């Protein structure tokens, strides 16, 4: 008497066919094997590169006159309401100066209104200081909290790391 196995046979053992798997073939894969299509792509790419290089070399890039100079590059504030022109300021835009507006930080009429470089809180010439290294505006709470300099020599957070 022959013994018959009760276990089911594996499918690949019983099947004479080769194992088949699904494979997703998209247009990009098909095109990458087509030499004519690849030549077209190469020609288009080189054409675009040369056009861009020509347009950059032909355009004499002029500085944008409409671009506003950051406020911290035009004035230096000392925390007591005094405004001084910055050393590196060539020409000042009188657009922001000499127009008093209500400050968001203290509700006073002020000329300079900007944000603290450390905490992004609003400040004015009465509430803020200019960093002695980079000139960016720092509020008085940041100077006292972070110990970044003192009122006579205020430093922003970045400059205090390297001081």
UniProtKB/TrEMBL annotation:
This is Apoptosis regulatory protein Siva. It holds the Pfam family Siva. One of its GO terms (molecular function) is CD27 receptor binding. It comes from Musca domestica. One of its GO terms (biological process) is extrinsic apoptotic signaling pathway.
